[in-house]
Amino acid sequence: MRVLVVEDEQLLADAVATGLRREAMAVDVVYDGAAALERIAVNDYDVVVLDRDLPLVHGDDVCRKIVELGMTTRVLMLTASGDVSDRVEGLEIGADDYLPKPFAFTELTARVRALGRRTTVALPPVLERAGIKLDPNRREVFRDGKEVQLAPKEFAVLEVLMRSEGTVVSAEQLLEKAWDENTDPFTNVVRVTVMTLRRKLGEPAVIVTVPGSGYRI
């Protein structure tokens, strides 16, 4: 899942990003509304965690722009105000969910995952295919009933492949969904991660390489 965190309190923004990365999400971070508009213009995000009171461009205007562009990106709006009227106003301008500060990180993570499931055709919370069972919320993977321990990026790649439901996912798409914008697009990190993932999942291999196209399960 690709997430953009937009928060002008840099310590909070970086802490949220670090936590989400530990949950196997690809996370970019910006600290003002103008930078947020630049990012959403060039990257496809599943979820934007958006502080409402931002410098340069207000969070409300960033949210309106996402709606105006007709993007599938979901918006989780953050604010220091917990007033019902503020929550209603945020939802009316296009936010998909609303979370007042301070918040529990476990709740933030759960809300981000729930919104991420709504960016595509509805899928069950626990994904199952080819003998693999993947639970994004618990960060657990089982192959034929046996638990498989995966690193965050391996888990992220497997989740993208599972969500594609048998269609081919290119290396570029995996790079976009499982890594942040600081990753070198010419690196072989996707190929290496897929190789490691295949080994950990065991035989028979379930990740198929489609020459010239990408990978599928």
UniProtKB/TrEMBL annotation:
Residues 124-217 form the OmpR/PhoB-type domain. GO terms for biological process: regulation of DNA-templated transcription. The keyword Phosphoprotein applies. InterPro entries: CheY-like_superfamily, OmpR/PhoB-type_DNA-bd, Sig_transdc_resp-reg_receiver, WalR-like, WH-like_DNA-bd_sf. GO terms for molecular function: phosphorelay response regulator activity; transcription cis-regulatory region binding. Keywords: DNA-binding, Phosphoprotein, Transcription, Transcription regulation, Two-component regulatory system. The modification 4-aspartylphosphate is found at D51. GO terms for cellular component: cytosol; protein-DNA complex. Residues 124-217 bind DNA. Residues 2-116 form the Response regulatory domain. Member of the two-component regulatory system CutS/CutR, involved in the regulation of copper metabolism. CutR suppresses a defective melC1 gene, encoding a putative copper-transfer gene, probably by altering copper metabolism. PANTHER family: REGULATOR OF RPOS, TRANSCRIPTIONAL REGULATORY PROTEIN CUTR. This is Transcriptional regulatory protein CutR. It comes from Streptomyces chattanoogensis.
